[in-house]
Amino acid sequence: MQVASLIQDAAKRLLAEGQVELVLGFSEGSLPLRSTPGFVRRPEDAVKLIWDHTCENNLAVYLLKRKSKTAIVAKGCDTRAIVTLIQENQVDRNNLYIIGVPCTGMIDRRKVEALLEGQELMAARVDHDQLTVEGKDLEKTVPLAEVLHDTCKACTCPNPVIYDELAGERVPEKPAGDFNGIEAFEAMMAGERKAYLAEELSRCIRCYACRQACPLCYCEECFVDCSTPQWIGKAARTEDNLLFQAVRVFHLAGRCADCGACERACPVGLKLSLLTRKMVKEVKDLFDYEAGLDLERKPVLTTFAVNDPQAFLVKE
Amino acid sequence: MIIKKSELSSFLDKLTGQYQVLAPVKKGLEFYFQPISSGVQADLSYSNSVTAPKGILFPQSETLFNYDVQGETADMQECLDTGKKVIFGLRPCDAKSLVLLDKVFHGEKYQDPYYLSRRANTVLVGLGCGEPRGTCFCASLDGGPFGTEGLDLLLVDIGDKYVVEVVSEKGASFLTGASLPLAGKDDRAAAAKAKETAFQACTINLEGLKEKMDVNYDDPVWGFLHEKCLGCGACTYSCPTCHCFDILDEVKDSTGCRVRNWDACMFPLFTLHGSGHNPRPTGKERFRQRFMHKFKYFVDNYGAFACVGCGRCILNCPVNIDIRQVLADIKAGGDEK
Amino acid sequence: MNNPYLPIPVRLTKNFIETEDRLIHTFTLQFLKEEDENSFSYMPGQFVEICVFGKGEAPFGIASSPTESGFLKFSVAKVGVVTTALHAMQEGSILGVRGPMGNGSAVEKLKGKNLVIIGGGFAFTTLRSLITYILHPGHRGDFGELTVIYGARNPGLLLYKEELAEWEKRSDINLVCTIDVPCEGWNKRVGFVPTCTKEVAPCSDNTYAIVCGPPVMIKFTTPVLEELGFSPGQVFLSLENKMKCGIGMCGRCNVGGKYVCKDGPVFTKEELDRLPPEY
After folding, report:
1. What's the angle, vertex CA B171, arms to CA B166 and CA B177, rounded to 5?
2. Cys-Cys link to A238, which of A202, B94, C2, C47 (CB 3.0-4.6 A)?
3. Residue A316 resides in a domain
């Protein structure tokens, strides 16, 4: 059976039986290659739920502060965020029904746009492993794998780590993390790296879409909004933009689910996953810990072991 | 008059000597309005810029004045930008947005000297849209792909050259001395044809919207419209008509400056009182404010919708909230469909 | 072009601890330049943005009256960055003010009427301005009977104690002070402002009520006035919302299509009934 029908059936059943009041899933978007979060409350509306390679949002962000019984359609990375939210007491597992969906990756619209030579995307379709896109007077077919988000390409967690039911067959697990892009970044000299980030972040418009899209950025008062004391300049200046992203990423150390939601939300296309994935890699190298993979394992920064590496505490 | 495409960059080169010239510049996949030092940097093969060129006249961050307060004296230096500028190649929707911003910044009682001095010293050279995007709906908002409202000159692409149409006196005097060749009969016909054939697929029906919004403050529709909104500023910061701002101080010892930055009605802090009370406490009130401001309050105060149909918010919303659908839902009203 | 963002420099001549809990200070400001003093013309109910250089600006209702020349007075509670800095300020320091802003108390409209002025807590500041204005010998004849009902949590939190004592002695003002709960040494009224208003029961004929106080006081006082026969058009309320520019541009203080800074802060209840409750 199609994954979408499995999701719809589950949603319909859960709502009809009164097990949940709300199903968070994906509905058809208003543009080619776009879906939109769908909030379904009536069994008859379950047909609106879809599943395809455009379901890129991390819906776990909508679980915060939700009191009613809720079901959520969640990919592997989304479940990693949910695990961390449960561990941090932001989400009550008993109020949550997870419809896990094995995922083979989501399409990066910017990569598609690059194929279209400046033309507007008019239509797109996926056939097996091929994506065909149409512009006004051109059509191109490329392997799907080429146009997936970088975070999807490097994903090691295509199957949900926690779920109440699974919609679809498990997909093959992938080998350990591919940090290709990060290694190139690490290879830069410090000055080069700074210049690269400054150039990239000079485009930041401080709309905070990255923060708002991130399920784990849930601080009651974000440090950028704090006025007593004011930690950071509010103007969209490169140095403050850098500080904003740096602190945001530090705050996600050992928590980031590596889902790429921040990067996907960015209206100016900043390569934010470079920073988040660098932090994911640091934490993995230092503590052999990857956030959200195991509900039972204590979050890394809330535990201390005598043999924890501490070299980073001192600048050698 | 005409500008041959092959001569565009030398035309712009000449301008850069007398004006600060801002034109669409390609960065990665996107286009941004940026100051250019040489004509070749401008790239008019664009549909529209990621963020609106309003930021040239109303920058995301600007210093209002510097001050030095010592002992008995307070020395204040206002930072008015009176430099001559040309915004070259902006789209008619974005030009129209400036007419709307004029209404805000040129009030009956108060005038904003920062915006107005830039506005007065800027020549707006528009570029008609031969191929509006699928998300463009300017024609539904009293504009059009070749609309001239707010512009000083309009360029019409006719293949290997642009026909330059004079819209305002400012535009006419800008061209004095440029010694551009006159447009021939064929050129003018081609321009007329280009205008005729420009097809805007997307229209929205705004009939009855204002009347509906006059009475729908408590409509249940607001309860679900906002639900998927993340509360970021991607829409407001890319919008050509949004103009909310914050004012704050930046200081070093006895000297400092007062700065204004864009702000957004989608952020909780925007309206939070010092006491902790917030008149727009949740996403619902904030989402409603954004739409009420654009389609009711602005109409009440200034007689126009505060939207020009550029479609940026549609393209930039991380969760695909589509203003066209939102407006249709507002008009339909009632509970979730 | 006149730049509405540039503050007028003033000197802080007095930083006075107004209340027993020390959380409200009254500041007296004097213009540095005579021409600024002469051109600064205001009416009761208007406000200014006070600028603490290096900390920012915040709006405050003017507590002094235009009949008191030579200075401006403000009573300010310590709540945020600007007010905390202000409270700590040395006398003699240089500050800035932008204004006057807002529509004021529609004094012209109040002429020839009896007035009931109702205030609670430290929102009494602009009411002090209005009362002082009305009681001025040059103006007192323009208005009818004057009743003032003023409540605070306890006697220590009443503002302007000296003035209250003077007003109490006068025959052309009926001053009624009340505190929330009984307290040793207080032999006047006890009870919340709405209840007290009910007891005083001012006549609504040819009368306007001007109400200024915390939201909860306003919420319970307006129905009492309605019972007493005040129509929504006879009740004036002063609103507060977060403000930045003060000139109707920055977009945050709006209540519906009206800006508290530019179209307010004083609205009739009739006007507010037509607006959403976003204040």
Report:
1. 100
2. A202
3. no
pTM for the model: 0.95
Judgement on whether residues A80 and A205 belong to the same structural domain of the protein: yes
pLDDT digits (tens, 9 = 90+) for A164-188: 999 999 999 877 767 877 888 899 9
Report the C-alpha gap between B294 and B103 in whole angstroms: 13
Task: Check B29 against A265: CB less than 8 A apart.
Answer: no
Domain that holds residue A103: 3-108+148-302
Supply the pLDDT for residue C126. 95
Question: DSSP state, B111?
Answer: B
Q: What is the pLDDT of residue A314?
A: 59
C interface test, pick of A225, A226, A227 with most C CB neighbours within 10 Å: A227
Q: Which residue has the tokens 């249709």?
A: B328
| B246 inside 8 A of chain A by CB | yes
Write down the pLDDT at residue A177. 63
Q: Is the ipTM of this complex over 0.90?
A: yes
| Count of pairs with CB atoms under 8 A, one residue in A, one in C | 6
Tell me the three state secondary structure of residue A14: helix
pLDDT at residue B183, rounded to an integer: 92
Strands (E), C78-202: 94-101, 114-120, 146-152, 174-179, 189-190
| Percentage above 90 pLDDT, chain C | 92
Residue A315's pLDDT is what? 55
Which residue spans within chain A are E strands per DSSP?
Answer: 22-28, 35-40, 70-74, 96-100, 123-127, 130-134, 139-143, 165-166
Query: What is the dotted CATH code of the domain comprising C107-238?
Result: 3.40.50.80
Domain ranges across chain B: 2-58+80-199, 209-253+262-332
Question: Do A177 and A254 fall into the same domain?
Answer: yes
Low-confidence ranges of chain A (pLDDT < 70): 1, 177, 312-316
Q: How far is CA C192 from CA B127, C152, C182, in A?
A: 65, 8, 11
Residue A289 lies in a domain: yes
Task: Give pLDDT < 70 ranges for chain B.
Answer: 253, 336-337
**Chosen CATH of C8-101 out of 1.10.1040.10, 2.40.30.10, 2.40.50.220, 1.20.1250.20:** 2.40.30.10
Measured from the Cβ of residue B79, the count of other Cβ atoms closer than 10 Å reads: 13
Burial class (CB in 10 A: 0-12, 13-18, 19+), B124: buried
Chain C positions touching A226 (Cβ under 8 A) are: none
Task: Report the distance separating Cα C94 and Cα A194, nearest Å.
Answer: 41
Task: Report C:214-253 residues touching A (Cβ under 8 A).
Answer: none
Dihedral sign computed on CA atoms, order C227, C233, C234, C237: positive
Identify whether A307 is part of a domain: no
Please report whether residue A313 resides in a domain.
no
pLDDT at C27 > cutoff 60: yes
**In sequence order, what DSSP letters do the residues of C170-195 get, joined into one string?**
-SS-EEEEEESS--TT--SEES-HHH
pLDDT in tens, B42-98: 999 999 999 999 999 999 999 999 999 887 788 999 999 999 999 999 999 999 999
d(CA C260, CA C246): 9
Q: Where are the domains of chain C?
A: 8-101, 107-238
Q: Nearest CA to CA, how far is C168 from chain B (Å)? A: 32
B86 neighbors B122 (Cβ within 8 angstroms): yes
Say if CB C44 and CB C73 are below 8 A apart: no
Same-domain check for residues A138 and A156? no
